[in-house]
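Researcher: We're teaching a course module on how sequence relates to structure. For the next exercise, students receive a sequence and then see the predicted structure as tokens, so they can try to spot secondary structure elements on their own. Here is the exercise chain.
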Amino acid sequence: MTEALRRDVRAKVELILSEEIDAALGAGAYERTAARIGYRQGTKEREISTPLGKDVVSFPRGRYFEKHGENQEYHSTILPRYARRVKSVNAALIGMYLGGVNTRRVKAVLRPLLRGTPLSKSAVSRLVQRLKEAFDQWQKRPLDGWRFVVMYMDAIYLKARFAGKVSSVPVLAVIGVTSKGEKVLVSLEAKGAESQEAWRSLTQGLVQRGLKHAPKLVIIDGNPGLRAAVAITWPKAEVQRCTVHKLRNLLSHAPEHAHEAIREDFHAIVYAASLSEAKAAYERMLSVWRKSGEAVARSLEEAGEELLTFFKYPESQWKTLRTTNAIERLNLEFRRRIKTQSSFPTPEAALLLLFGLVISGQVKMRKIDGWKELSDAEKSLPAPLTEEQGTVTKEIPELIPAA
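Model: And here is the predicted structure for the students to work with:
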């Protein structure tokens, strides 16, 4: 069956290219019509790789009349100049690369399908370079018009070589949630540390790129630098402390034999049926652990009622809003794909892989629970930032959309 399909590939591709040039020039071959804006100039044979293998295809050539633009020669948009592979083949190659498969294995796996298609190390490198260019554009894209009801902010730690030494590098990640419940990867930045300066640089950068509307709710861990940056950049935004991070922190202040009791008391707070029940459970836990484990009580008191912010929202959203699991999920998928790599050559290489996993669809982010009720929250978003609160960037070219 595959062989039979191969024999048809050339004819089908040439038919598609012929229809494309007819539409571009406004007339078919030898057709006389007032709509014609150019004419054909024969054909040129090129090798092209499709998911069914390599084949030689006759590409139609054409030229526009002089009055129709500076670039007079016609070029196909389906198969651009110098292209030797269709987009689906490139997507498969970059997808396997992002999945951790090296060039030699890529060639071995795809050989039965691609049938002699040339695939060198430099070819994969060129695809990665295109991904890098897309990432650079994505990092600078304007955010005018975006409004996020909820924003998740956390750091992912990756091992990368920096200044000749392998160290754990924090990648500051931001995921925004629109009023339709869609999660959008907003920012990825590698920094030297999770300091207030680092997080403030990121949040102020979002404002400068046009994100005028502060989110209604920001979900964060207990990093003091992140908390301070949010307070400075979006002072009116509500804050939810991640309950999973806080539980880990509480357990770190107690010996193992007390962990089960701490979990039970803490779960009575975060899994309460209402805000009033949660506050009562919170006070009980403080009272108990002030006597039997003062460090645990101090840690719980440090988070305060920011552990309970999610109770102000519809119950259908509680599970999604009480943790930073949206970013933890991204972290988990990333680590699953790089478990064979001990470290990255540079922090930029780690960023590129993270971005590629999301933009290629290998890591997918589903809508949050209870998203249909987010429209009510959008109505009460904080007012747009003033010019004193953040400078909006001037004209930036339109770039690729967010992942």
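Model: If you want an answer key for the exercise: Residues 387-403 have pLDDT under 50 and may be disordered. The first helix runs from residue 2 to 25.
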